[in-house]
Design goal:
Elements lengths: L1 H54 L1 E7 L8 E3 L11 E2 L8 E8 L9 E8 L10 E11 L6 E8 L8 H5 L4 E4 L3 E2 L19 E2 L6 E3 L11 H35 L1
Parallel strand pairs: 1-10, 2-11
Antiparallel strand pairs: 1-6, 2-3, 4-5, 4-7, 7-8, 7-9
Length: 258
């Protein structure tokens, strides 16, 4: 009887192990396998990022002095632009700044990010241009083709805004170029004089643009204004004729009395 009771107690302990502790053990083993998978994923992620950094970050040449039509000006019909627009002179307007905004292929204008730092304008005979040199696009690797870029410029007058976004929150002038696609590979670390040379990519087909406080429009006489001037001219003409006729009648009366 004692042996039977012992066997019953042992069987009860085995049932308790199977019903409670075995699922807990299986859960722990599953979590361990999941953690191992997470470690493997993190390892490959770090390997991917380290390989991109080993390749080098892409570089771009921020230079707008490429042709006579790539000038950046103060817009016409503004206090600084005058009637025909004036080139931005860096020595006279040190608060005027420009920067490159970039993104990977297929980016929209709203997705572009500023490639710091911003740069001022040159002065003298080359006023209206920016010759800032190489800019590093940290999120695109060397050799990347198809980057999307845009040049944005601004002038906050009383202080030097650090970005286009900061400038548009304040009173000032601002403007931007069309969106360009870089068709050549981005540059990176290497010898510019080597074979092949490693140089920063250039922004193709640049065109100039104006900065001002939108809307930038020259005032033109409206149709109502022209109609009002026409009525005013007719009124003066009739008044002149009426007065002339009145003076003629007065002269006739004076001569008749004589």
């Amino acid at each position: 009887m004692c042996c039977a009771l012992k066997k019953k107690r042992t069987r009860g302990r085995d049932d308790f192990w199977c019903s409670f502790w075995l699922p807990v053990w299986r859960l722990g083993a599953g979590m361990s396998r999941a953690m191992n998978s997470a470690r493997v994923f993190c390892f490959y992620l770090v390997l991917l990022f380290s390989s991109s950094f080993c390749l080098g970050q892409g570089t771009l040449n921020f230079n707008t002095a490429v042709n006579a039509t790539s000038v950046i000006r103060y817009a016409p019909c503004t206090p600084l632009g005058g009637s025909s627009g004036l080139k931005i002179d860096g020595s006279r307007h040190p608060t005027a700044q420009a920067a490159v905004y970039a993104g990977p292929a297929g980016s929209t204008e709203a997705q572009l990010v500023m490639i710091a730092p911003a740069a001022g304008f040159v002065s003298g005979a080359t006023a209206g241009y920016v010759t800032a040199g190489s800019r590093t696009i940290s999120f695109l690797p060397q050799g990347y083709v198809g980057a999307v870029v845009q040049i944005r410029a601004w002038d906050s007058f009383t202080f030097t805004a650090r970005s286009y976004e900061e400038a548009i929150q304040q009173f000032g002038y601002f403007g931007k170029s069309p969106i360009y696609t870089i068709t050549e590979p981005l540059g990176g670390p290497g010898d510019p004089q080597g074979t092949p040379p490693v140089t920063a990519a250039h922004i193709p087909d640049q065109v100039g643009f104006d900065i001002g406080e939108p809307p930038i429009t020259c005032p033109e006489p409206s149709a109502r204004s022209l109609f009002g001037f026409a009525l005013l001219g007719v009124w003066f003409y009739r008044l002149r004729n009426k007065n002339g006729l009145l003076f003629q009648r007065k002269d006739m009366n004076v001569h008749g009395m004589r």
